[in-house]
Design a protein that fits this description.
With 365 residues, the chain is of the alpha/beta class. The protein is 37% helix and 21% strand. The chain starts with a strand and ends with a strand. Strands 1, 2, 3, 4, 5, 6 and 12 form a 7-stranded mixed sheet that branches. Strand 1 and strand 2 form a beta hairpin. The relative contact order is 0.17.
């Protein structure tokens, strides 16, 4: 039985999720899971770097440091399991995105977390740098997880939407009619703005359970201003990141609304996430939305989505067999298996690439 490790750190930049998984007979078999948090100084430096506040030396040092942390996550995962390094076919490492600029004359995307170092410290072949091959073919380079969603979450008889609520929100529409194309794109912010504002105002890295947001009120003028962002009206294919949706983006609008209380800003940002998902959602009668990512653990956000996305049903991916926390790391383990077996991993209908491509760079053990 082939076994794979998936490593994922998303746009929330809070840490690394690691999973050891197999895919027997087109099923998902989880053998072990593990998470580590970034040290505060690393997280703060990553956030700063994502805002273009860093030198080449800073990029190089953090590339090494993050690669070492990814390797630590993989090695600690193996220690929790009954597997050894020589039983793992490959690691799929998404890396840590610090800049994603898919549009314009010179599109690029940059994920750090030295994959050569991961291979060296684990003794396991590592597949990384998944986005750039799709981007070289004219695609957005993201989202890449819809191919995995199609493989494991599609179902005849039910129109499904997989909604990932990480720092950025992205959705995948899985039609019950399999002759129709799978579509997907980034809708905009999920937790990124709420986390940034919470950290700025309270010192806490995130608003646990949406408790602080629940104490505030939606400021309709501020909400209307935020919703006027051109990205929300753009057609797919499209993708974005924290280089756009960040604390500075919030503060630009707040300069026009200086009277809004901090707690009301938090509640308005939560509503922004829910509304931008709902307004861009491909509505299908009887559709079920399966939520994954950190936002699935925010009952306040889930309640807002149930209201704004009605009549669609909102639940989590646990209902279809995979805990919300482990969908994306599992997807990158699966993408590594695709790469190692010379199979394509992107969906041109999602990313806009000129065709299907084998994605990812291989660092052999």
């Amino acid at each position: 039985m082939d076994t794979w490790i998936g490593l994922m750190s998303g746009t929330s930049m809070d840490g690394i999720d690691a999973i050891l998984v197999s895919f027997p007979d087109n099923h998902i078999q989880i053998h072990a899971t593990h998470s580590i948090s970034y040290p505060d100084d690393i997280r703060n430096r990553l956030v700063s770097l994502s805002q273009n506040k860093g030198s080449p030396d800073e990029i190089g040092e953090l590339d090494h440091r993050v690669g070492g942390l990814f390797a630590t996550a993989a090695n600690q995962l193996l220690e929790k399991s009954s597997f050894s390094a020589d039983q793992i076919q490959a690691i799929g490492s998404h890396g840590q995105t610090i800049r994603h600029q898919p549009d314009g004359g010179t599109p690029f995307t940059l994920q750090i977390g030295d994959a050569a170092l991961i291979t060296e410290l684990t003794g396991i072949t590592t597949v990384a740098d998944f986005r750039r091959r799709d981007m070289a073919a004219g695609g957005q380079g993201a989202p890449l997880v819809p191919a995995f969603h199609r493989a494991y979450f599609s179902a005849e008889g039910e129109d499904r939407c997989i909604l990932n609520l990480g720092g950025i929100a992205n959705l995948t529409q899985l039609p019950a009619d399999r002759s129709r194309a799978v579509t997907g794109f980034d809708t905009g912010p999920a937790n990124a703005l709420m986390d940034a504002w919470c950290k700025e105002q309270t010192g806490l890295p995130f608003d646990t359970d949406g408790t602080w947001a629940s104490e505030g009120d939606i400021d309709q003028d501020l909400l209307s201003d935020l919703l006027s962002e051109a990205y929300f009206q753009r057609p797919a294919p499209k993708s974005t990141g924290t280089e756009k949706f960040n604390l500075e983006w919030i503060q630009t609008s707040l300069r026009r609304h200086p009277e809004v209380e901090a707690v009301d800003v938090q509640r308005t940002l939560l509503e922004l996430t829910a509304l931008t998902v709902a307004k861009q959602l491909p509505q299908q009668p009887g559709m079920t939305i399966y939520v994954c990512g950190g936002g699935a653990r925010n009952p306040m956000l889930m309640k807002a989505l149930q209201r704004t996305c009605s009549p669609a049903t909102i639940t989590s991916t646990s209902a279809i067999g995979l805990d919300p926390q482990w969908v994306e790391p599992t997807a990158f383990a699966w993408l590594a298996s695709r790469t190692m077996n010379h199979k394509t991993g992107n969906l041109p209908d999602v990313t806009g690439a000129r065709g299907k491509r084998i994605i990812g760079a291989i660092y052999y053990a």
